[in-house]
Structure formats: structure tokens, C-alpha cells
Write a structure and sequence with these properties.
2 copies of one chain form a homodimer. By secondary structure, chain A is an alpha+beta fold. Chain A is about 45% helix and about 15% strand. Chain A contains 12 helices and 13 strands. A 7-stranded mixed sheet of chain A has the order 2-3-4-12-5-8-9, with helices on both faces. A two-stranded antiparallel ribbon of chain A has the order 1-13. The first copy, chain A, has a two-stranded antiparallel ribbon with strand order 6-7. In chain A, strand 3, helix 4 and strand 4 form a beta-alpha-beta unit. In chain A, helix 1 packs antiparallel against helix 2, helix 4 packs parallel to helix 5 and helix 6 packs across helix 7. The interface between A and B is large, with 86 and 87 residues.
Chain lengths: ~325, ~325
């Protein structure tokens, strides 16, 4: 089935109000969950909403908590999320990073004790929509083996980079694992293979078989040793900047919460770039799009382009959602 | 053969002085080329030195040029490399980013018209050795196809993240291609296969065969679409911040020069972290190292650990170099 954006957002808001969020907070959070779904990231939108409500009821997320500034070094501030709703805290921290960037050229907020931010790309788009370059990342619980290891001791720690552009922001939103566990599960349920190797089977061979990967839990870091290394650095830097939990710490909790995140913003407007540079950037994007495609029926996309297409399609046709999931949300 | 560190450094310095560098510049640059070699990155140390001298003689690198500050927004400065020697300019810009970080908590220098920085990790180690967290990246000429494309229109744009630590800095230095062209060439000459897929053959299949990849030029981005997207963003953000050339622009030149780079630093000391946090970081690193290895004869390393091992080994035994390369340098 498909549900119209406004209807979905209203439904989320209704439930969040019931959970004790203020009118404003419920509205803003509902918008983020609906936007993530509109942009096609259902796993961190409509399909995750029920679990977020469960986290509230388990006490991991505190609807009345307010994030607070802990300390400042000028362009770099440290905040404590106080276990408020992750999506609201992340929005607030990117907002604050943009304010700092307006004052100092670059702004950085390091955040501890926050909850899952759902789709990290949300905060990249937030920056880009406000004419800021945005860079942000999060740590998470141990869900991926380090390079050379069998057991999961590092996180898939997504990083987001976003560049504003009149003809459509350029945004990359990527976890350090080749595929999410959600994607592997969906592929298994559809009885399909992953498009490329996604992990290792019990014999230690690379495989596209979702069953085999679920059996070992050995998901593949992007670029093998490279994604493993990048994941470790993103985790440790976030923890040091925020004085917050590492992936190792988070793995000791009952469930994924009290994470560390970093938000960096730079005002594109203040850079005072010429229209010539603007044109060069557009030419670069077009140059990439004009690559010779691997087959005649494919197209080369710039990062963020397909998100825009999905957004337009879902706005027109409604957001796809499984009936049982939608019924469950309506019953909350 | 192996050459002692001091002897190699002195030889580099002799040649650089002959090329018109000042005593101080020749000394500093010689140290960087020798350090890169000492750390095992021969491709961007001793093996690249002759080509750098050629670039000077072709006029791409100007030995007497001095990088200059173009503009400032406080914690973010824009510099012009004026086509000075890339390694010296990169050092200077990371130094400046650290100064800005001391004043503002975070510092960023965006650099245009610079030359190849050789091993990007150098500037990560530079930051870490001074108790700063360092993040930096560069763009380059088009040398990798975007995801879904056959022809090379994006760069392999390396990114470096570095964290200071008493027991050894944690440093990742990674290009966006799974393997460098240099590595593919070496593997071909040794008549070996790459350890994992490194690109595509003429039939469009993934392959470990270096010959097949050199035939198509289709090297693989790390994580397929992910490394492709990250490469595009790193390039465009560097160009926008520095008001400098994009990968597309650089591809129009006769050879690789006038690049754009970004240097970000954060003072770890100023963060005022507790010794408890220090311990947590060490525990995290140890937790990763204590992973169950994929086989009984392998070890799990943290990023930067093997560099330290190589450094110690090459300090003791001398730096490995092919006799003909060393003779060529001595004849310069």
C-alpha cells in the first residue's frame, strides 16, 4: 500500500504526542520520520517507528529530556544528548554547528549520550538545504568484524557529506558495511542474492548469499581493510571529541543507545565564491553524469540524485509501506 | 638493497638544493620523502622522487614559490599553494590548521593550486605527533570510473584520519580505489593476482587479474557505489572550500598539478579529557586487537600499527630500494 506524506506525518505525530512529547517536538520528529520515508529510507523511517516507540517505553529514550551544552572551545562545542530522541538532538546539533560556522567559518558539535539518528543523510540534507556544507558521522554498537577478524567488534558507523547546489544538493550517506543487516534480511526474504559480495560464509569465502552471511554474522566492510580502518577512526574520534561512549562501550549496554556523534558545518555563502566556481561544480557533476555507462540501459547518477527522484515519486504516489506495519502504527 | 634513513635523506637534500630549494626547504622536503619511505610507502617516497624532480624541471612545481593566505573566516582559512612543492605546502597547511584549532577549538585550511602531497598519511601523523586529531583529503586527476561508468571521470581522492595516542597514534590513510595503479602494476610484474577484486575485465566481470584491469582501466572504488560517491563529495567539497580546481579541471591539464586539498585539526589537549577517557580509547583499541582472527597465523591490527612496525624495521635494517632507482637518484 501507499500512504500520503501528510497522513503518515500526522500519524507519527499523534503517537509521539501520546508518548509525552511536546506539540513542537512531536511535530518536528514526525516530519523527520516522514521525510526519511519519503526519501526512500524506509528502514529508518516508517519501518523503524514502532521500535523507536518501544525504546521510549523501555526508558532508553526520554521524551522530556533536553540536550545541553557541556563545554565550548569557540568553534567546537561539546553537547550531551541526555538520551533525548536522537533525531531531534541531531537536528539541533547540526543547527548549532551551522550557527558556529556562521561565526567562525567552520563549526563543530560533538555529541554524547544521544540516541539513534535514524537516517544520517537527514542532517546532510538539512545542512545543504540551508546553504551549508555538512559532514557528520555516528558510532554504533559492534555489528561488523574488523579486517582479519571473525567476530563483530567494530560498528558500521555511517558518515555523511553534503554539498548545497541549486540544481540539487550532492549528498552521500554511507555506512561502513557493504550492506545493512536490514538489506541482507530483505534479500533473504525475497530469496535473492545480493548484487555484490556482502560478507563471508562459514568456510570463510566471500558470498552474495544472505543466508550464509546471516549464519556467520561476518558482514563485509566497504573496501575490506579500508572500511574497517575508517570505521575505527570514526568511532574513536567521535568518542574523544564528545567524551562519549565508544562502540566497545555501547556493546556492553542492553541495547543500542547513548551513542557519540560529530556534526561539522561550513557556510557556503560566506565563502563568497564566484558564479564561475558554481558553474565549475555544475560542469563537474555533468561530466560525471556524461560518463560512458556500463550498459545501454543504465544511467550514471551523482550522489543524492536518486533520493530526489524517489522523493518526487513518493510525494506524488504516496509512500510505500507494508500493510501490517501501517496497521501496527495506527494501533499505537 | 637497503639504504640507511640518514643517507637517503641526505641524498634527497643534495638534489633538492641543486634544484634551487633553500637550505631549510630542502631539509624539510628531504625528511618527508625519507619518512614516507621509512614508513613503507615507497611509491610516494623514494620511488617517486625522480618524477618529482622531473615535475620541477617541467615547471609544474616552482621551488621558489611560497604559499599564501587568500582569505579568512576565522577558524577557516583559504590558501593558495602557488604551485610550490606539494609536501612542504601540505605540512604548512596542517601546521596552520593546528594553530587555528588552538585558537578556535577546530581549525580548517582549504588549499588550492597545490602539488601532489605524496603520502597523505604524513599530515595525519604530523597532527597526531603534535597531539592533534587530524583529518585531511586531496583531489586528483580522473583515474577511476564513477559507479555505473566505464571511463575514468572521478579521482581516487585519498582521505586521512588520525588520532594521537600515547601507545601509538591510530591513523587511516586510504584512497577511494581498492588498489592504486602502482599496486596493480607491481602485482602484474610479479605475475601474481590481487588479494581481492580490484577492477573489471573487458567482459565487465570483476577480476583479481592485474593485466585485465590495466587493459580496461576500470579500477574498483572501495565498496562499489559507496567509494564512488565519497570520492565525488571529497573532490567537490575541496574545490568549493578552496575555490580551486575540481578533478574534472585537473584532467584537462597536461599532468597532475594545481590540486585542491583540505586540512582539519582539533587539539586533543584542549578538549581536557579525563584519564578515564584515555583508558577507554586504549581499551577499545585492545578490544579490536583481541578479536578472533580469521586464521591462527594472522593478527588483527589497528590502523597505523603496521606502519609503526615497518618504521622500526626500516630504521634498523635500512630502507628497501631497487638498485636502479637508487642509482638514478644518485646521478641527479
Amino acid at each position: 500500500m501507499r500512504v500520503k506524506y501528510e497522513e503518515m506525518k500526522d500519524e507519527f505525530k499523534r503517537v509521539l504526542l501520546k508518548e509525552g512529547f511536546s506539540e513542537q517536538a512531536a511535530n518536528e520528529a514526525a516530519k523527520i520520520f516522514a521525510d526519511n520515508s519519503l526519501d526512500g529510507v524506509y528502514s529508518h523511517g516508517v519501518n523503524r517507528f514502532v521500535r523507536v516507540i518501544e525504546f521510549i517505553e523501555k526508558g532508553y529514550i526520554n521524551p522530556s529530556a533536553v540536550p545541553e551544552k557541556v563545554s565550548t572551545l569557540g568553534a567546537l562545542e561539546r553537547w550531551d544528548g541526555n538520551l533525548a530522541l536522537g533525531v531531534l538532538t541531531a537536528r539541533k546539533c547540526m543547527d548549532r554547528a551551522m550557527e558556529l560556522a556562521t561565526d567562525y567559518g567552520i563549526g563543530c558539535v560533538a555529541l554524547r549520550n544521544t540516541n539513534h539518528w535514524m537516517r544520517g543523510g537527514e542532517y546532510g540534507w538539512q545542512a545543504a538545504n540551508n546553504e551549508f556544507i555538512g559532514i557528520c558521522w555516528t558510532n554504533t554498537l559492534p555489528n561488523m568484524p574488523a579486517w582479519g577478524a571473525k567476530d563483530s567488534r567494530i560498528g558500521n558507523n555511517p558518515i555523511i557529506l553534503a554539498l548545497p547546489r541549486k540544481d540539487g544538493p550532492v549528498v552521500v550517506d554511507m555506512a561502513m558495511s557493504q550492506f545493512s543487516y536490514g538489506r541482507i534480511e530483505t534479500t533473504r526474504m525475497e530469496e535473492k542474492e545480493l548484487p555484490v559480495h556482502g560478507g563471508y560464509d562459514i568456510q570463510g569465502n566471500l558470498t552474495k548469499d544472505p543466508n550464509a552471511i546471516e549464519e556467520t554474522g561476518r558482514v563485509l566492510p566497504i573496501g575490506f581493510w579500508k572500511g574497517s580502518g575508517l570505521s575505527i577512526l570514526l568511532d574513536l574520534i567521535a568518542s574523544v571529541l564528545a567524551d562519549g561512549n565508544t562502540t566497545n562501550d555501547i556493546g556492553k549496554f542492553d541495547d543500542e543507545h547513548a551513542l557519540s556523534q560529530v556534526f561539522i558545518a561550513i557556510s557556503k555563502e560566506q565563502l563568497g565564491n564566484s558564479s564561475e566556481l558554481e558553474q565549475k561544480i555544475n560542469e563537474s557533476v555533468q561530466y560525471i553524469k556524461d560518463s560512458e555507462p556500463v550498459s545501454s540501459d543504465t544511467e550514471v547518477y551523482y550522489p543524492g540524485e536518486r533520493t530526489m527522484k524517489t522523493r518526487i515519486e513518493n510525494t506524488r504516489m504516496g509512500i510505500p509501506v507494508k500493510e501490517e506495519i501501517w496497521e501496527e502504527i495506527k494501533s499505537l
